[in-house]
Design goal:
Elements (H helix, E strand, L loop, with lengths): L5 H11 L3 H15 L11 H16 L15 H13 L3 H27 L1 H13 L1 H6 L5 H20 L12 H4 L1 H17 L5 H16 L4 H15 L2 H15 L6 H7 L6 H16 L5 H11 L13 H20 L12 H16 L4 H16 L13 H19 L4 E5 L2 H6 L11 E5 L4 H12 L9 E5 L17 H8 L7 H8 L2 E8 L2 E7 L4 H5 L2
Parallel strand pairs: 1-2, 1-3
Antiparallel strand pairs: 3-5, 4-5
Helix pairs in contact: 1-5, 2-5, 3-4, 5-6, 5-8, 6-18, 6-19, 8-10, 10-12, 11-12, 11-17, 15-17, 16-18, 17-18
Length: 553
């Protein structure tokens, strides 16, 4: 008689517990209520720059290729899903953000399923809660970026794959590992990984990495027929997502003449990044993102400390070696891939990796610390603090609730311009010029003309001053909307990233925004309004026009 492993008992217990479909309303309610004050915010950053305009174009015209924003070959599934939802909710930010809460809840349900099958219910609750309150995940749970869609589908695909490999087949035991040889998890994994790839092209990294791993296992087990067939089946399932993604690129090429988007998009996100020094810096930054960023160091360091201890209770479930190997492959592949791909080092690109890091941490706690609940509570407190308290280094506002501060400040500034100078021509940088010119983003009811510069560095402001006095004619813009383009510790405070500033400026477009008074001096204007919230700031400048311009129609 073959003894059943603790992993198999965990799966059997999971099947006997509350069905996942009954838990989904609880998950959605928790996500929705915890983000209630954010649901009416207008669209932010990449939402307004690409994802909402692309979905808006599909909603109005049915075209998969955006026409009111630049086409960059991102797959169309988020646009299709958002447009479908807008037919029910109406095209309003609160409807969009409610739908993203639904997607985030589905992703958390995948985390719960994955952890419950591998470690049991208590560890699943801890892993899911920690994922939900991790600042980057919390912030992304209402933002309509493709990353939350890709994360949800990727985590569901991983839950089926890891559930299968959790039952290592050795000797005669492979005959009892029905999950490893069943076609159901393979089909489900193929479908979910395909949906992930159709949500964001870089999601293909995870199934391809696992396919490479399965190829190694196939070579290792080539002399065991039943295992060989299982590996071949998994290879087919993991490589299947390449087909719909290739079909999308073929369609995109047919319609636009470009496979991977316009040449500038391809250069910024791929070809311009192939510099050895830049890749080394990215590997360093991405490692910090996975292990330290936004207080992730708390659960990670606790897990490393626990690793030095002997197991507290030997009968507690532990992650099987095949599961650890597969997770390591996925983390390694994404760490490397996102150190090469992408012009910006946005942490949301790693969104489905954070639950895996937390799963590994919880696995160590519950195995080696008898009363590990206090570690989970400490980590939860650290994450909750990170939602509101900024770290001592520069970061993207969308990594915690700083994005909300930025939106509120932009709302106030644009409302002032719309009320007092509705015919103004406004000098500003992205994303504010989209916020001014596109009323559907929720900042203004009518378009306001904008003149775009790259950022508010001294170089760009001086270029704007020359433009104002150059061939284009003085007074091309009469107003300026300036704002902090990133959050950084105020001068005089601790800044852990200060020593990396030259390299960050060279490779990652980090720059120092001029303060409003400095910019006004260079542009010969006047600061008529400014405000700040927790380090984020915005200012409105006005410039006098000549009498000839004032008299012109």
């Amino acid at each position: 008689m073959i003894a059943r492993s603790p992993s198999r008992n965990l799966l059997r217990d999971a099947r006997a517990q509350t069905p996942l479909w009954q838990l989904y309303p609880v998950f959605f309610s928790a996500v929705y209520l915890s983000h209630l004050t954010l649901l009416r915010l207008p669209y932010f950053w990449d939402e307004g720059g690409y994802y909402i305009p692309a979905a808006w174009d599909f909603f109005r015209t049915g075209t998969l290729i955006p026409v009111t924003t630049v086409t960059n070959a991102h797959p169309p599934l988020p646009s299709i899903l958002l447009a479908g939802w807008w037919h029910l909710s109406g095209f309003v930010p609160s409807g969009t953000r409610t739908f993203i809460c639904m997607v985030a809840a589905a992703a958390l349900l995948a985390v719960f399923r994955l952890a419950r099958n591998l470690l049991g219910t208590r560890s699943a609750v801890a892993t899911t809660l920690l994922t939900a309150v991790y600042p980057v995940w919390y912030a992304q749970s209402t933002l309509a970026h493709a990353d939350i869609f890709a994360a949800a589908f990727t985590l569901w695909g991983l839950s089926f794959y890891l559930e299968s490999v959790n039952f290592p087949a050795t000797g005669e035991q492979h005959l009892d590992s029905e999950r490893r040889f069943s076609h159901t998890p393979k089909f489900c994994a193929a479908v979910f990984f395909s949906l992930a790839a159709l949500s964001k092209e870089t999601a293909i990294v995870t199934p391809v990495a696992l396919a490479v791993w399965e190829s190694y296992l196939l070579l290792r087990d080539r002399n065991v027929p039943v295992l060989r067939h299982a590996h071949i089946d998994w290879l087919a399932a993991l490589l299947a997502p390449i087909l719909p993604l290739a079909a999308w690129y073929a369609y995109h090429f047919h319609r636009t003449g470009f496979v991977f988007g316009n040449p500038e998009f391809l250069r910024y996100n791929a070809t311009a990044n192939l510099d050895t020094h830049r890749i080394a810096l990215c590997l360093y930054h991405r490692l910090l993102h996975l292990t330290m960023h936004m207080n992730m160091f708390v659960p990670v360091l606790c897990a490393l400390a626990a690793f030095l201890l002997l197991p507290a209770i030997t009968e507690r479930a532990r992650l099987a070696r095949p599961v650890l190997n597969a997770i390591a492959v996925v983390l390694l592949a994404n760490w490397i891939a996102f150190s090469v791909l992408g012009g910006a080092l946005l942490t949301r690109y790693l969104l489905p990796m954070f639950p895996l890091v937390l799963l590994l941490a919880v696995a160590e706690w519950q195995l080696r610390v008898r009363d590990w609940g206090w570690i989970a509570a400490l980590s939860t407190a650290a994450f909750l603090a990170g939602i509101w308290i900024n770290p001592p280094y520069a970061f993207a506002p969308e990594d915690n609730l700083t994005y909300r501060d930025m939106i509120v400040l932009h709302q106030r500034a644009i409302a002032l311009i719309a009320e007092q100078w509705p015919q103004a021509t406004v000098l500003t940088a992205w994303p504010a010029y989209s916020e001014l010119e596109r009323p559907e983003l929720g900042y203004t009811k009518v378009p306001i003309k904008a003149v775009a510069i790259q950022n508010f560095s001294r170089e760009q402001i001086e270029n704007a001053a020359r433009m104002q006095q150059g061939a284009a004619g003085p007074g091309e813009f009469d107003t300026a909307l300036l704002f902090s383009t990133k959050w950084a510790p105020p001068s005089g405070q601790v800044n852990l990233a200060l020593r990396n500033a030259p390299a960050d400026a060279r490779y990652f477009d980090f720059h120092e925004d001029l303060l409003p008074a400095e910019a006004a001096s260079i542009l010969h204007g006047e600061v008529v309004w400014q405000a700040s919230i927790r380090g984020e700031w915005v200012a409105v400048l006005r410039f006098p026009r000549t009498k000839e311009q004032s008299a012109s129609p």
